[in-house]
Design a protein that fits this description.
alpha+beta; 17% strand
Length: 115
């Protein structure tokens, strides 16, 4: 069981790490019922770029950690010196890249995320 987002981009939020409202950090806000609706366009690209740059170091560190793993646990994460924030940034970075690429391809990006 997991929480998904779908629309112009699709994916699954990282279990126990990533909030359903993770896309807020890229410059849009949601409307709340059972789903969070997001709409991005080219106006948000500077914010997206800035956020991705701020998470790049965490992304690279966690990407290296996952290089030889299909799964992991919190102890392995701790032993590798990876903080909860770095893991969260890793997951958000992947989402941010999807949003950015969708905007660059379509001029906008719209999706809904399960709460």
């Amino acid at each position: 069981m997991g929480r998904y987002y779908e629309g112009d981009i699709n994916g699954k939020f990282m279990f126990g790490v990533q909030s359903s409202t993770a896309a807020d950090r890229f410059g849009s806000t949601y409307v709340q019922p059972n789903y969070v609706d997001y709409y991005f366009d080219e106006q948000q690209l500077p914010t997206i770029k800035k956020e991705l740059e701020s998470m790049e170091e965490s992304f690279k560190k966690v990407e290296e950690f996952f290089k030889d793993k299909d799964s992991w646990n919190r102890q392995q994460e701790k032993d590798a010196g990876i903080s909860e924030q770095e893991m969260s940034d890793y997951a958000d970075y992947i989402l941010g890249v999807k949003i950015r690429d969708c905007i660059l391809e379509n001029g906008y990006c719209e999706f809904e995320a399960e709460l």
